[in-house]
Specification:
Layout: H1 2-28, E1 33-49, E2 52-67, H2 86-114, E3 116-119, E4 125-128, H3 132-159, H4 170-183, H5 185-202, H6 211-224, H7 230-258
Antiparallel strand pairs: 1-2, 3-4
Length: about 260
């Protein structure tokens, strides 16, 4: 039960941060936001403010922002997302991953400032607390180093140098979140920073359906000065969904193998 609750808390918070980035950028450019939901599924509670329905939904594993003009219909929505310039849409898409990366940095700085457990030369576990300036510098270095490792791992997966069996999915993340919560808030903070950084960077991958895929399509349109047809966009999104489904099945197989339910 602890594992499920910890995973729900971590994923919901990190998706909230991600969607908050999209929300703030959309509002900045005047795109009407219809719904900002914490969780999925049936509505449990809601309130409407300035035309936005802020909602708490029944399934506490993530959340979403519904903007006008994001559903592919083949026609432009007045003042909607699809009516904005390519640059504005690019910024709105980029804002989600950037928020996750920035949040990871904040968590790293807070963790270093509040104190992290390290081993002394004698082998004893002690709490090391960095000063404000040192926490910012060390936090930035830690996020940069971890980002480099994540990107190298992604590159290794794409070139075949790293086996897909190393990938971790929802079950594995839930297990990590549960174990971290049992070790204390410092360990949970570090885990949240790592997952938030992964979420931000992976969402920048040029796979249709992810933010990075939509951003790539906008770049292609900007270079060619031609708008991709509705049919082509729909086909690309379908292909992206298939890739993500295959990835989910692979990570689920890996996770079940790690906990002994399947033989890898």
């Amino acid at each position: 039960m602890t594992t499920v609750l910890a995973f729900a808390f971590v994923i919901t918070l990190l998706v909230f941060v991600h969607e908050l980035g999209h929300f703030l950028a959309a509002r900045w450019y005047g795109v009407p936001v219809e719904v900002f939901s914490i969780g999925f599924g049936p509505r449990v509670w809601s309130v409407r403010r300035s035309g936005v329905e802020y909602r708490v939904s029944a399934i506490p594993f993530g959340g979403y922002v519904k903007m006008a003009g994001t559903a592919p219909r083949g026609e432009t929505t007045p003042n909607g997302f699809d009516s904005k310039t390519r640059w504005q849409r690019f910024v709105i898409l980029l804002a989600g991953p950037v928020m996750n990366i920035a949040f990871a940095l904040v968590l790293a700085i807070v963790g270093l400032w509040a104190g992290i457990e390290v081993q002394s030369e004698s082998g004893q576990t002690v709490i090391y607390r960095a000063g404000p300036i040192d926490a910012i510098l060390l936090g930035g270095k830690a996020i940069a180093a971890t980002s480099s490792e994540i990107l190298l791992t992604i590159a290794g997966l794409m070139t075949g140098q790293i086996s897909p069996s190393h990938l971790i999915g929802p079950v594995g993340l839930a297990q990590i979140a549960g174990e971290s919560s049992e070790l204390g808030w410092r360990a949970l903070l570090a885990t949240m920073a790592f997952i938030s950084l992964n979420l931000g960077l992976c969402n920048l991958l040029p796979i249709p359906i992810l933010d990075g895929g939509h951003m790539l399509m906008l770049l292609v349109e900007g270079v060619t000065r031609r708008t991709l047809s509705f049919g082509l966009r729909k086909a690309l999104l379908g292909a992206g969904a298939a890739v993500m489904l295959l990835l989910l099945m692979t990570t689920l197989y890996n996770d079940l193998g790690r906990i002994g339910l399947l033989t890898l």
